[in-house]
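Task card 7
Instruction: Convert sequence to structure tokens.
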Amino acid sequence: MAQDSSFDIVSQVDRQEVDNAVNQAAKEVRQRFDFKGTDTTVAWSGEVVALESSTEDRLKAALEVFQSKLARRQVDLRSVKPSDPKASGKRWRVFCSLQQGISADDARKVAKLIRDQGPKSVKAQIQGDELRVGSKSRDDLQAVQKLVRQAEFDFALQFTNYR
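Output:
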């Protein structure tokens, strides 16, 4: 009897890479001439990254710097959700939250895609905040990975636990 193979589809962010990106962005903001005198900061605030500046355009520039540092460290930008810039007194703020795990609705979207367009021998199960995909054929699992990579979702996906 053939052994079933499987892998998990997850949405995770490497917090250490995000922390490195925060530190690099904060250093660049402190050193760049166009940020002098604007008191622009990039720092952790609990579980979110807080960006703060005295003007809205400098805040947007700091957000671009932070996003470029994330991209350079191979952190998917779809997993970091910035809020809208808000004025608080004389300061402008943006909070970037990290998306960990796949929501139930998003997992249903991926499972429906696999069920409708994937090979018939493949089974997808929602397990908490991840999706387990199993089949007897490893070739079918690789076809599912290719299918999911080609689909455009508004959230980041990774493939783990391939057995």
